[in-house]
Amino acid sequence: MLLISGVASKMWTRVPSVNLIWMQLKVKQFKDAIDNSYWFEFFIDDLPLWGFVGELHPDRHYDNKHMLYTNKNIIFKYNGNQIIHVNLTQDSPKPLEEGGVLDMTYSVKWVPTNITFARRFDVYLDYHFFEHQIHWFSIFNSFMMVIFLTGLVSIILMRTLRNDYAKYAREDDDLETLERDVSEESGWKLVHGDVFRPPRNLVLLSAVVSTGAQLATLVLLVIILAIIGMLYIGRGAIVTTFIVCYALTSFISGYVSGGMYSRNGGKNWVKSMILTASLFPFMCFGIGFILNTIAIFYGSLAAIPFGTMVVVFVIWAFISFPLVLLGTVVGRNWSGAPNNPCRVKTIPRPIPDKKWYLTPTVVSLMGGLLPFGSIFIEMYFVFTSFWNYKVYYVYGFMLLVFVILIIVTICVTIVGTYFLLNAENYRWQWTSFFSAASTAVYVYLYSIYYYYVKTKMSGFFQTSFYFGYTLMLCLGLGIFCGAIGYLGSNLFVRRIYRNIKCD
């Protein structure tokens, strides 16, 4: 029974005024929910049910009359002792008025079916939406972008570098030509004594690069498991798999961080290890804590139970953190020895002023455009599946986009790094990271567009959850792309300086 006012209208004088205000507020909330077409979702045996709160009926006394659904009919389809499908219909709308008492009822009907338990989620898969022609076209378009970029990088850079290498490969007896070339020498060759200088904030760079390497492995692993095991059929299966796999892949972040920090002459490896282990989890925890506080304040079921938070913390403390420690120790001992192709000079070379489009800020901002262009169609499907409650199941598409994103990010970052070095700016490490990480900035800007154009969300609660979870996604994407960009540029820089002759 739903009590709208709490008591009959003739007894209102005996109800405290505070209660009356609270009851009027509840009625107003119901009316606002009906006006804005709010609907609810609940689960039976991991199968979702959806229904609207109510509807508007024309009334001769008022422009519209708010009607609240009071009866729910639930149909269960079963095969043996397993529920295969559930369906909800609603009827008996009653006017929503203060002082009224509404009886809430429901009915249940059981219907046998021949559909197997393994196929019970097929009815929720929107084949027309996810396998639309535009989805296939976006994959093809991104694939062509990869071919173009890899070809462009190979042709431009290899031709340019081949000419540069030819100058260093001349015979010693061609002294006149060699001296002329050296006197005219400019660009990336001049900074060979500074290009392997340790970057600023080495501890932080080691932490974000190693975390990004872990996230790349994690995303690839989760996508493969989703393709093999159809993780979408279980409620919360993707999130659970993500948390468990994150903990188990923590060795990778420790190994990359320990080796990178030691190769660049880092001394305080314990600080680097702690930052690596806690950076991304604590950022997510901070955002989640704020969102959880908002959910508790609004009395929403979206609030994460305290027991779940304790379990996640235990997994981090007793699985993830020890694996990062082990990986750091192994990385320092196995790959921590400096092996730079060129000797680092004692006195840093001054960086000359260049045109605005060769500054690190512009290179960083421009670097994320093409990677974003290769994934923004897929981001539309991901956003729609998450915020419009569609079941995302096309993980084969996601795997292709994941590979395309990595290739495009590496190519674009290498080009940006090459331009930066040609401008005689040897501080390429952070620029290569931010050049790739700026992809997440464009994704977040796209999420703002999606919020205002594609959704009907409103209010502080929905807005905070939308942009909070999107921020969490973009932080992970930025760290992942930044790490891929840095590692690709690092291989490129070491390769080109390995072949030059220098003192």
Automatic annotation (TrEMBL):
Listed InterPro entries: EMP70, MFS_trans_sf
Keyword Cytoplasm: no
Transmembrane segments: 134-157, 202-232, 238-261, 273-298, 310-335, 356-383, 395-421, 433-453, 465-488
Pfam families associated with the record: EMP70 (PF02990)
GO cellular component, one term: endosome membrane
Lineage top rank: taxon: Eukaryota
Membrane-related topology note: Multi-pass membrane protein
Compartment(s) where it occurs, according to its Swiss-Prot or TrEMBL record: Endosome membrane; Golgi apparatus membrane
Main location (coarse class): membrane
GO biological process, one term: protein localization to membrane
Keywords, comma-separated and alphabetical: Endosome, Golgi apparatus, Membrane, Signal, Transmembrane, Transmembrane helix
UniProt record similarity statement: Belongs to the nonaspanin (TM9SF) (TC 9.A.2) family. Belongs to the major facilitator superfamily. Phosphate:H(+) symporter (TC 2.A.1.9) family.
Protein name: Transmembrane 9 superfamily member
Protein source organism: Nyssa sinensis
